[in-house]
From TrEMBL:
<keyword id="KW-0472">Membrane</keyword>
<comment type="similarity">
    <text>Belongs to the bacterial PQQ dehydrogenase family.</text>
</comment>
<feature type="transmembrane region" description="Helical">
    <location>
        <begin position="65"/>
        <end position="81"/>
    </location>
</feature>
<keyword id="KW-0812">Transmembrane</keyword>
<feature type="transmembrane region" description="Helical">
    <location>
        <begin position="12"/>
        <end position="35"/>
    </location>
</feature>
<keyword id="KW-0560">Oxidoreductase</keyword>
<dbReference type="GO" id="GO:0008876">
    <property type="term" value="F:quinoprotein glucose dehydrogenase activity"/>
</dbReference>
<protein>
    <submittedName>
        <fullName>Membrane-bound PQQ-dependent dehydrogenase, glucose/quinate/shikimate family</fullName>
    </submittedName>
</protein>
<feature type="transmembrane region" description="Helical">
    <location>
        <begin position="41"/>
        <end position="58"/>
    </location>
</feature>
<keyword id="KW-1133">Transmembrane helix</keyword>
<dbReference type="Pfam" id="PF01011">
    <property type="entry name" value="PQQ"/>
</dbReference>
<feature type="transmembrane region" description="Helical">
    <location>
        <begin position="87"/>
        <end position="108"/>
    </location>
</feature>
<dbReference type="InterPro" id="IPR002372">
    <property type="entry name" value="PQQ_rpt_dom"/>
</dbReference>
<feature type="transmembrane region" description="Helical">
    <location>
        <begin position="120"/>
        <end position="142"/>
    </location>
</feature>
<dbReference type="InterPro" id="IPR011047">
    <property type="entry name" value="Quinoprotein_ADH-like_sf"/>
</dbReference>
<feature type="domain" description="Pyrrolo-quinoline quinone repeat">
    <location>
        <begin position="170"/>
        <end position="247"/>
    </location>
</feature>
Amino acid sequence: MKSTSINISRFFIKTYALIQIVFALILTFGGAYLLYLGGSIYYLFTGILLLISGIYIFRIKLSGTKIFAVIFVYTLIWTMWEAGTRFWGWIPRLATIAIFAFFLTLLLPYFEHGIRKKIAYSFTGLIVICFFTAGALAWYPYFTTLDNSQIPQNTTNTYHSVSAQPDDDWRYYGRDTQGTRFSPSNQITPENINQLKQVWVTRTGDMPPIDKKNKWAAQTTPIKVNDALYLCTATNNMLKLDARTGKK
């Protein structure tokens, strides 16, 4: 019974080791290419150490786990140095190593001269706590600036467009580069809107053929620059109209 338990433990250790070796080879070759391009030496160096660690772990040698511990510690230091307090900068640098560390701590008691289960699983618990903490921090908003000032009540007088243009122009799809869709023009008001009269109407006369598949109707937001209106027809042709008369 004890022999069967040992064989099962060895199977899981060797399976883990093979996965780490494959990952190490990918990291080594990728790191070498990155270094050739002028990137960080970390990935090549770590790939080589992970490969050595994986070979020792495959042989059920505790020294392989010690090498991995060194990798984990300097990866943590490197992450702190390079990412600082940027939470999302920690994820790509530390997450994969932390996942390997989690499974390796579960296997620690089954190595030759292995660590006692209480000590090994305390490391496992510490990593789990770190994972839960990281998951909670992922919901915290980063790099945000809250404006707690009061919203002005009179938007007509306080509005300032980020795109300099006359009040009666509409030079962008959303009126300005921030897409506010707000016009400061005050010619039309709630008091005089019922007096509006139609001055002109135009038809593009440019529609897709009746038998054409996947056709669409014209849904246009005209762009107004000075006295010219620019619009797109249903077949993607551009038209320029006189804003005062509607003539093409």
